[in-house]
């Protein structure tokens, strides 16, 4: 320690610098002036001046080596602050050739920071590294290994590989350790080049130095992740190592905060989790040591919790064991109950892992989860949303998606906004309980994150509205459409809407705006004209709008009604026919053309509600045959396919020139040809049509597809493109929403209800008692009541939904029978319940979990409620109610957790958490350093003075890091 | 794997940047700035943990610790346990503290090459190499002892040889 100089002494030593850091006065001045810089611009000026002077001085001949070292360090410093120091790279490379350890190390440090592994200068270093790896001085070997790790790329691995392998048997453990890591790095870069050396890792696992063994776990973890089965034989070794570690057989130096080698334990647990996953036999070996760990780990220290958390991850990954799962659940609940945000975070993550195995665990922690949802900590909130996302069911989707949307509206981070928006859409598509709800949800998502959601989502929405449920329930479909139209007409009044949303709105209004006869054609057309006026610079929206107008006009004509052309619509057409965009022009002209057609033609061209119909493409264009024949007879030249054409006539290329321009926007590199007599009309015409068919298979042309689909004027383009359009819309739509999920869920919940009536009684009681204890603890009964309600809706609210379903979906014979049966089951108690409801509905309490069922009964028979108000004795009513609560509650939970959606399994795995409360840190930090040397006020005072002297005192008065930790 | 170690002060000035996958200097600055923007927006009594997939790509997270005027930040992917990373920061800081005796921002500014030496002993190529603060310290002291003895022994000869070299 004696060579560690304080700044004061360094200053006193002046330009020579002190110790092995060796900075000069100049460097101190530089740091000082940067510290004093008032603005970024000033700082930049100082650094640029510094770089200029370094550039000059570094190039001088015969710079003393010590001075050069300092220049290099200053260059590293300048580059760290974001300025280019590339002129000095070559000097850093040169410095690695130096014999002196200190200079060589500086050189290596600089090149590892400066150079990427494909930099041109690397080739100059490889030789040095090779030489240094054979050095007698182990520190030089270490430095070379560090550099090799960073700089050696796939091509240069063979150059150093033999030396590195030799070093695996080096007498110094520091070298063995780094050689293992370097080999691991080579494996990451290019697995093939070191595949024959993988057995070395197994050998090093038995190294008698724990540091080397610990380092070997890193490559083994990667190897096992890649290929579990070849390492099953190591399970027993890993378990025995873990056992030895927990029994404190490792040297004392590996203890960290009274835990024996926790970092090694964690790595081992990670490896065991991989090996035991889905393997009953391997898991059997692991159970024992895991049980020990759960018993031994103290949850008072941060690192203890880290190990505990890793144990939970391991338990949830290996073949399930009831006892261990209990222990894991207990630890999880400790995490969740903790005051530390870090621990709560870990708890949420652990809960996400455990519910995959046993969904009931979440129920116990519903209030803690809701607390986390309302926490000011963003990280925790997001983690909780992730958990909710995993446990969404048709029963709680409304609450969860509403919460997500509220959060989405509240944040500004576009990256996360996009993610959460796509999750909302996914959940809504999968679990939507009703059409109205689905449309409303999508409207909210589009309105608030419209420009962030994927275009595909918009196409999905349009497709869903067009296709409906895919069942033969036409009434429901048209209901859905008219509710969409209603909501869109309302939304159009809002001042600012994302472009993508407007496209959807225009399309739906065009397709279904007048289909239910509620709105007149001129009303809808007027609205669409308003849209184009409000979004003058958005051509895509305009295109959608004009196509929508055309559709409405066509529908009117086809229905035999006269289309009155509104003045604003006429002016819109005029404006667009003169537009710079050829696409808009075409649409405008098509609209004008379609207005002049007779009703039969229009009906064929633009059939009503046919966006989903399959259209067959006649790729041979056989209907043109007679026309072609005629032309040829008249003396036209026959059509030559493009493939033959390109090879045979380079001269007459120009004939197809204008087609080129229209269809493919590629540059022509060859010279224009000499003019020739005008081509006969047949050739271009046919090739035009083939070109259109050529367009068909091209994906990602959604915009044009939409165009073509809407503008079904020329039969050729119509046929081909509409087919394309349908293909495109079907892409990537995984699941139909609405009916199927809904109906199945309602039937499961109602049937399971009946089955488990007796069993679930206990459940409800325990729930209640826990709720009360929470209440008494929390003291704010009002808040907690609110939370209770939320919890009920999140974790078990299928009853609430059954009440809603019949009213909202308008086609609920099934659901109605399901609910209608209930009075038969719970008939005796229903009056009491309804009384309960009447009494407690304004401020829901713990029993409020029963509210949903009362709502159900209310819809079925309002008279019973009245009876209930007059009838029963209070004593029995509460009792009865608790019974029904449990009856009602249990099936909800079952429905909620029994079948985890397949999508959730993938997302659960990745996350883990972080628990380390600030105050705990404080205590722990106190423990170790304080014992070692204790606070040294004199030292800190001196430093303080130095800091002031140098002038880089950062914000606070006392820049000492540990002042606040050591007290 | 650990992707990066960033030490910066509470005004966002980088004090040590170490990326275990090469990043060009401009990118390093950009990443540092965005990390600082996230950290400075976080209140004191929340978790030490931020999902960083907007900055460092999908699946990455960062753990930070705010001590006096410095932020210590570790960026890593899903292979690491974040609680353990937090303790690794603790190991680093404890080692620094023992090394510099009541470490302060200034020590780190002036001795950032020594910081690098310490860090290289703890993290090697993005993997955790050594977690015992004592052993790290021993290794670092050994390096500085040898460097010093080598330079003091060669002090006179070096200047002589330098003269001969001319």
Features:
heterodimer, A: 967 residues, mainly alpha, Leucine-rich Repeat Variant, two-stranded antiparallel sheet, 52 helices, 2 strands, 68% helix, disordered C terminus, B: 166 residues, alpha+beta, Beta-Lactamase, five-stranded antiparallel β-sheet, two-stranded antiparallel ribbon, 7 helices, Clathrin/coatomer_adapt-like_N (chain A), AP-4 complex subunit epsilon (chain A), golgi apparatus (chain A), protein transport (chain A), Adaptor_Complx_Large_Subunit (chain A)
Task: Give the helix level of chain B as a range of percent.
Answer: 40-55%
Compute the gyration radius of chain A: what is it? 37 Å
Largest sheet of chain A: 2 strands, antiparallel
Query: Taking strands numbered 1, 2, ... along the chain, how are they ordered across the largest sheet of chain B?
Result: 2-1-5-4-3
What fold name goes in the CATH topology slot of chain B? Beta-Lactamase
Strand-residue fraction of chain B?
A: 15-25%
Q: If you average the pLDDT of chain B, what whole number results?
A: 84
| Biggest interface between chains | A-B, 123 and 97 residues
Beta-strand content of chain A: under 5%
Order of helices and strands of chain B: EEHEHEEHHHEEHH
* Ends distance of chain B: 48 Å
CATH-defined architecture of chain B: 2-Layer Sandwich
Kindly give the count of domains of chain B.
Answer: 1
Broad shape of chain A? extended
What sort of overall outline of chain B do the alpha carbons produce when their principal axes are compared? Answer: globular
So how many helices of chain B?
7
Structural class by helix and strand composition of chain A: mainly alpha
User: What is the CATH C level class of chain B, in words?
Assistant: Alpha Beta
User: What is the alpha-carbon Rg of chain B in Å?
Assistant: 18 Å
Mean pLDDT of chain A: 71
- Give the helix/strand class of chain B: alpha+beta
């Amino acid at each position: 320690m004696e060579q560690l100089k304080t700044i004061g002494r360094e200053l006193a030593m002046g330009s020579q610098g002190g110790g092995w850091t060796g900075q000069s006065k100049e460097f101190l001045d530089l740091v000082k002036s940067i510290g004093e810089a008032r603005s970024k611009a000033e700082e930049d000026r100082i650094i640029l001046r510094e770089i200029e002077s370094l550039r000059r001085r570094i190039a001088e001949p015969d710079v003393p080596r010590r001075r050069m070292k300092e220049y290099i360090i200053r260059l590293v410093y300048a580059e760290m602050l974001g300025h280019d120091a590339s002129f000095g790279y070559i000097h850093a490379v040169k410095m690695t050739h130096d014999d002196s350890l200190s200079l060589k190390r500086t050189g290596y440090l600089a090149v590892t920071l400066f150079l990427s592994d494909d930099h041109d200068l690397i080739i100059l270093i490889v030789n040095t590294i090779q030489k240094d790896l054979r050095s007698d001085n182990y520190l030089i070997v270490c430095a070379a290994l560090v550099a090799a790790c960073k700089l050696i790329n796939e091509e240069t691995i063979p150059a150093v590989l033999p030396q590195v392998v030799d070093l695996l048997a080096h007498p110094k453990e520091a070298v063995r350790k780094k050689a293992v890591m370097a080999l691991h790095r080579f494996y990451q870069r290019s697995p093939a080049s070191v595949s024959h050396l993988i057995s070395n890792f197994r050998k090093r696992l038995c190294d008698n130095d724990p540091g080397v063994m610990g380092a070997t776990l890193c490559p083994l973890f990667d190897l096992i992740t890649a290929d579990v089965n070849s390492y099953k034989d190591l399970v027993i070794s890993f378990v025995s190592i873990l056992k030895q570690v927990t029994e404190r057989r490792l040297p004392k130096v590996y203890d960290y905060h009274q835990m024996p080698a926790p970092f090694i334990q964690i790595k081992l647990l990670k490896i065991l989790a991989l090996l035991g996953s889905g393997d009953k036999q391997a898991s059997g070996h692991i159970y024992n040591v895991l049980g020990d760990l759960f018993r031994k780990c103290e949850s008072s220290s941060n690192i203890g919790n880290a190990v505990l958390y890793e144990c939970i991850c391991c338990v949830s990954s290996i073949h399930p064991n009831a006892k261990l799962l209990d222990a894991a659940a207990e630890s999880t609940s400790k995490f969740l109950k903790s005051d530390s945000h870090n621990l709560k975070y870990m708890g949420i993550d652990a809960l996400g892992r455990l519910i995959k195995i046993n969904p009931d665990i979440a129920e116990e922690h519903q209030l803690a989860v809701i607390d986390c949802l309302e926490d000011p900590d963003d990280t925790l909130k997001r983690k909780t949303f992730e958990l909710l996302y995993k446990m969404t069911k048709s029963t709680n989707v409304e609450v969860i998606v509403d919460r997500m949307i509220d959060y989405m509206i509240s944040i500004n981070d576009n990256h996360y906004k996009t993610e959460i928006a796509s999750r909302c859409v996914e959940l809504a598509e999968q679990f939507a309980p009703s059409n109205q709800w689905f449309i409303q949800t999508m409207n909210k998502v589009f309105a608030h994150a419209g420009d962030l959601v994927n275009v595909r989502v918009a196409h999905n929405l349009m497709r869903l509205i067009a296709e409906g449920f895919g069942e033969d329930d036409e009434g429901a479909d048209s209901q859905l459409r008219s509710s969409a139209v209603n909501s869109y007409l309302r939304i159009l009044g809002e001042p600012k809407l994302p472009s993508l949303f407007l496209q959807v709105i225009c399309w739906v209004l065009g397709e279904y705006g007048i289909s239910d006869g509620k709105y007149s054609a001129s009303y809808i057309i007027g609205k669409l004209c308003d849209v184009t006026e409000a979004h003058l610079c958005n051509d895509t929206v305009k295109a959608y709008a004009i196509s929508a107008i055309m559709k409405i006009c066509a529908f009117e004509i086809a229905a035999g009604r006269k289309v009155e052309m509104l003045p604003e619509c006429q002016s819109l057409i005029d404006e667009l026919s003169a537009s710079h965009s050829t696409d808009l022009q075409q649409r405008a002209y098509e609209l004008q053309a379609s207005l002049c057609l007779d009703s039969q033609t229009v009906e064929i061209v633009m059939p009503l509600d046919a966006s989903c119909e399959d259209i067959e493409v006649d790729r041979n264009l056989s209907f043109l045959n007679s026309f072609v024949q005629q032309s040829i007879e008249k003396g036209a030249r026959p059509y030559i396919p493009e493939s033959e054409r390109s090879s045979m006539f380079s001269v007459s290329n120009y004939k197809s020139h204008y087609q080129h321009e229209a269809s493919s926007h590629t540059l022509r590199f060859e010279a224009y040809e000499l003019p020739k007599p005008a081509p006969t009309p047949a050739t271009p015409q046919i090739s035009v049509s083939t070109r259109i068919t050529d367009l068909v298979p091209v994906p990602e042309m959604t915009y044009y597809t939409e165009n073509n689909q809407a503008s079904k004027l020329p039969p050729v383009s119509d046929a081909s493109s509409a087919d394309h359009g349908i293909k495109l819309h079907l892409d990537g739509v995984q699941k139909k929403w609405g009916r199927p999920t809904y109906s199945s869920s309602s039937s499961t919940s109602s049937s399971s209800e009946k089955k488990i009536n007796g069993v679930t009684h206990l459940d409800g009681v325990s729930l209640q008692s826990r709720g009360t204890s929470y209440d008494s603890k929390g003291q704010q009964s009002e808040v907690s009541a609110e939370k209770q309600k939320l919890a009920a809706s999140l974790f078990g609210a299928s009853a609430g939904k059954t009440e809603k379903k019949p009213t909202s979906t308008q086609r609920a014979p099934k659901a109605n029978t399901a609910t209608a049966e209930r009075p038969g089951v719970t008939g005796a108690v229903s009056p009491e319940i309804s009384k309960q409801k009447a009494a407690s509905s304004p401020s829901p309490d713990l029993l409020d979990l029963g509210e949903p069922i009362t709502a159900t009964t209310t819809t079925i028979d309002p008279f019973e409620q009245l009876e209930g108000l007059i009838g029963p004795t209070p004593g029995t009513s509460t009792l009865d109610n608790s019974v029904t609560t449990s009856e009602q509650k249990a099936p909800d939970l079952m429905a909620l957790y029994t079948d985890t959606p397949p999508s959730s399994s993938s997302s659960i795995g990745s996350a883990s958490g972080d628990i380390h409360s600030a105050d705990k840190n404080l205590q722990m930090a106190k423990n170790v350093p304080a014992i070692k040397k204790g606070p040294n006020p004199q030292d800190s005072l001196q430093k303080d003075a130095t800091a002031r002297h140098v002038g880089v005192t950062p914000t606070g008065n006392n820049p000492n890091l540990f002042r606040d930790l050591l007290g | 794997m650990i992707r990066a170690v960033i030490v910066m002060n509470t005004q966002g000035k980088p004090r040590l940047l170490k990326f275990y996958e090469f990043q060009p200097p401009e990118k390093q600055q950009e990443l540092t700035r965005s990390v600082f923007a996230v950290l400075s927006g976080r209140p004191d009594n929340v978790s030490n943990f931020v999902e960083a997939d907007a900055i460092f790509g999908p699946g990455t997270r960062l753990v930070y610790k705010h001590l006096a005027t410095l932020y210590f930040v570790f960026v890593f992917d899903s292979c690491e346990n974040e609680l353990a990373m937090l303790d690794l920061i603790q190991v680093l800081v404890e080692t620094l503290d023992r090394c510099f005796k009541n470490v302060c921002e200034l020590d780190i500014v002036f001795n950032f090459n020594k910081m690098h030496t310490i860090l290289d002993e703890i993290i090697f190529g993005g993997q955790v190499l050594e977690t015992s603060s004592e052993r790290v310290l021993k290794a670092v002291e050994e390096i500085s002892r040898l460097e010093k003895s080598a330079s003091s022994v060669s002090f006179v000869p070096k200047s002589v040889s330098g003269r001969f070299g001319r």
